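Quick one, probably user error.
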């Protein structure tokens, strides 16, 4: 692996429940239009969030649950647990299956992390969401369709690079994930114009790579 090689998330397990039990539906706070649900686990939580957000743009589904597990995929409770469980809900199995298929493809092909060093031990997520769906827009407190910069890195790298991203473009923090998160990373969702979010992603990437290349340099 080399610098800026993609790091692809893996979907580990997936199932559809055609007609969810109403007691369980109540615990998940499902609405009357949520007769069917889809379950998905993934070994990288941020890639999963982007994937399930994409699902809401192509199928009649909502994200009703998406929580990360403590300490990350390497310390998961089982081989198929990964780093996050996500649940999509919709009116029927067909919509839910379409949402799951869209999420899986997007996680595999679009929601890419990148290596910041030659051995792949330092990874980061400088991801541009050109058009947010129902899930990420709700997390960020913006209208669906607004662009977002989804930025995540290890604690020092992420904090330093987030500052660089904010100074490089006309963006603001819509949601902040301070260290330590459940998976011991830090990051944020930034909102602004598409051009500004693009510039913020690029600045974040440059700053993370600088730390990876010169970890003991006091100044940038």
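Nope, works fine. Designed sequence:
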């Amino acid at each position: 692996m080399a610098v800026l090689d993609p790091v692809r998330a893996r979907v580990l397990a997936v199932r559809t429940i055609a007609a969810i039990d109403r007691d369980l539906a109540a615990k998940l706070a499902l609405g009357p239009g949520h007769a069917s649900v889809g379950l998905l686990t993934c070994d990288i939580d941020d890639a999963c969030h982007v994937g399930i957000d994409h699902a809401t743009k192509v199928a009649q589904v909502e994200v009703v649950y998406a929580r990360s597990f403590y300490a990350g995929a390497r310390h998961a409770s089982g081989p198929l647990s990964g780093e996050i469980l996500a649940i999509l809900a919709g009116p029927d199995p067909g919509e839910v299956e379409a949402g799951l298929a869209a999420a899986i493809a997007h996680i595999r092909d679009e929601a890419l992390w990148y290596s910041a060093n030659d051995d792949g031990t330092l990874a980061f997520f400088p991801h541009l969401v050109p058009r947010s769906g129902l899930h990420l827009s709700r997390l960020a407190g913006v209208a669906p369709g607004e662009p977002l910069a989804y930025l995540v890195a290890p604690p020092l790298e992420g904090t330093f690079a987030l500052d660089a991203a904010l100074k490089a473009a006309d963006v603001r923090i819509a949601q902040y994930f301070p260290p330590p998160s459940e998976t011991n990373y830090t990051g944020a969702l930034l909102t602004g114009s598409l051009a500004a979010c693009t510039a913020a992603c690029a600045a974040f990437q440059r700053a993370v790579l600088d730390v990876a290349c010169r970890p003991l340099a006091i100044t940038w």
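The chain has a mean pLDDT of 96.
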